[in-house]
Amino acid sequence: xxxxxxxxxxxxxxxxxxxxxxxxxxxxxxxxxxxxxxxxxxxxxxxxxxxxxxxxxxxxxxxxxxxxxxxxxxxxxxxxxxxxxxxxxxxxxxxxxxxxxxxxxxxxxxxxxxxxxxxxxxxxxxxxxxxxxxxxxxxxxxxxxxxxxxxxxxxxxxxxxxxxxxxxxxxxxxxxxxxxxxxxxxx
Length: 187
Fold this sequence. Notes:
Blueprint: H1 2-25, E1 27-38, E2 41-51, E3 57-64, H2 67-74, E4 82-84, E5 90-94, H3 95-111, E6 120-124, H4 127-136, H5 141-151, H6 160-166, E7 168-175, E8 178-186
Parallel strand pairs: 1-4, 1-5, 5-6, 6-7
Antiparallel strand pairs: 1-2, 2-3, 7-8
């Protein structure tokens, strides 16, 4: 009797482990989140850490009334996968979005439990176009932004808490298929 109970417990624990392993394969960790405005609605473009067969990061898009709304919708991707943001390193915002909805961005950065406090926040005049241009040149905007954050002066790089406190955001642009620094903007 004891032996049968032990086998049942062992079988249940093994099935639980395989279920968790299957759940992990359905997760898409997002490295870079791009936030823009399109006709009064927030559009987000999420670059995943996962790459396709050509080593290009997978990209997912979603729209919503706010950045929090769009991110919430993106959590359940149509492909049966779930986007997660605990590994998000970079948030690239359109300067228009920053100028018009800074308070919304601050609330998202402050209250979004998944976004790390260490995430770097950048802005660009046309963030979606910058992202497209870099991807068309087969570049990786996530890697470019991380490199820029590592090589820039500590007082230039803005992380999520600093944006909430000061409204300062590190501005970037695209040049020759790479991200270049422009300096710090105040919103």
